[in-house]
């Protein structure tokens, strides 16, 4: 299968576009800096070739759809590497060293002589293996978008003693950071005999402002039992030029970057600069976010641990609520733009009567509002538990407090305390009605993200780290992640161009509503609007006017607008 950096619409498509008076699509014409002719010949002969192909009229709508779905910007388009196969198969590939270093040498993978791994039949991944982005298909579905499967390759692009690897952690804390650091160090050392591994201190700024720490399997031996990150982390401080200057000066050739959406954007910038300078360096992103808001991947590491720990806070809130007359327990959980922790913690607990997330707007007063629901629930049950994600209801607080928006060092909006605000609002409401009640507000957010990862997250972190190492050794640059249960190498632009959000028009949110019995706070028109928006992002054809989401769903039982694995 040929792969392509250059995506050109077929001539007749252009003709047709012109006839129809449509603008030419500039994205389709974007090109990478051209290789010299003899380099292009070599690159074309490589299995990771960066050759120019013309794509068929059939697949062009697919590529356009891919672009629309993932909001690829024009500047990103130059780095997009897409190829097509039969029946609408598309490979959204990750960059490789030979894209710009066609003379790069390969070596046999040292794992073939490793006493543990050499016994495994078919240990190496077939170079053509890919992982589908969408699992649920119908008989006549196109095969759709795929990502390159992660795993060890038969040949690698680095000799063991040539590797100089570094690891950095950025953004907020998350359970499992230390496990990933440990497994990167131990994996590089034990699987690939790499001995030069460095830790960058306190996030991106540590590349140019701190000493690099030497990491060995011994020095990281028991760090997975501790929360936080032994390397330190920070927000802000990303200076691409200074970072790459230091990578270049110190001869680093594998960069492992652990962090959330902002961090992966930073990793992409670093990759682009490395490529511009023609350096033989692999960049491997390991996505980290307690909010589980990274696009494409099934789930981020530490998320299970966070949901489990949140149960302890919800249990305490329940005990407090049950032990008072008209008792309310209110728990705030993390989730800046995405309410996954709140949703899963609610679904797991079964004691929660109301869950508020940023994706589902709500209102306080009047018919169908939150206060009316609380009053009703207290009448029925004499107690209630509310879980609120920190990003929920920010518009309501901003309106009532009229504060100016503030940002952290990375440019993220600083949130106002929804838990505290709700506590006051609820108290005031019952006071005005002369109803006795007690509310206890629990904010366990930093306690949740500071703990070590649980057993299942530890295994997940280990596998992610190993996949990252195999990919970097094989010369790829990517974000690693699990897609439909399989590890894959995902292009940076795919994980940074959208954010994973709770889909309030899919079955998971419906399950939550039916378990809490809370109102949806939405009109049927709102629900249709949300569904249309979700379908637009998922690049599904718009519903015909006059057909609402519920009607369409009953026509098409298999319809799923979920971004990550609705069951
Ligand atoms: N668009 C960007 N380009 C380059 N670097 C960025 C970009 N956005 C953020 N960064 C850098 O990435 C690092 C982490 O970003 P941020 O603080 O937003 O955390 P995050 O990785 O998104 O993790 P979290 O899940 O905690 O939000 C910071 O050092 C920041 O400077
Ligand atoms: O207080 P900090 O360290 O900026 O982190 C808070 C943010 O970090 C996150 O946990 C994401 O990592 C968000 O949920 C939260 O808003
Ligand atoms: Mg972020």
TrEMBL record:
Enzyme nomenclature, EC number = 2.7.1.11
Catalytic residues (positions): 291
Q: Which residues form the Phosphofructokinase domain?
A: 165-470
Q: Which keywords annotate this record?
A: Allosteric enzyme, ATP-binding, Cytoplasm, Glycolysis, Kinase, Magnesium, Metal-binding, Nucleotide-binding, Transferase
Region described as Disordered: spans on this chain? 1-30, 537-567
Residues holding ATP? 172, 235-236, 260-263
**What's in the GO CC field?**
cytoplasm
Q: Which residues bind substrate?
A: 289-291, 334-336, 390, 446-449
The primary location reported for this protein is cytoplasm
Enumerate the residues marked as the site Important for substrate specificity. Answer: 262
Q: Where does Mg(2+) bind?
A: 261
Name the cofactor(s) required for activity, per the record.
Answer: Mg(2+)
A GO molecular function term, named singly, is: 6-phosphofructokinase activity
List locations, semicolon-separated: Cytoplasm
Task: Report the catalytic activity.
Answer: beta-D-fructose 6-phosphate + ATP = beta-D-fructose 1,6-bisphosphate + ADP + H(+)
The biological pathway it contributes to is: Carbohydrate degradation; glycolysis; D-glyceraldehyde 3-phosphate and glycerone phosphate from D-glucose: step 3/4
Which PANTHER family does the UniProt entry name for this protein? ATP-DEPENDENT 6-PHOSPHOFRUCTOKINASE 1
Function per UniProt: Catalyzes the phosphorylation of D-fructose 6-phosphate to fructose 1,6-bisphosphate by ATP, the first committing step of glycolysis.
Q: Which family does it belong to?
A: Belongs to the phosphofructokinase type A (PFKA) family. PPi-dependent PFK group II subfamily. Atypical ATP-dependent clade 'X' sub-subfamily.
Record's NCBIfam families? Answer: PRK06830.1
Protein name stated in the entry: ATP-dependent 6-phosphofructokinase
Q: Which organism is it from?
A: Zizania palustris
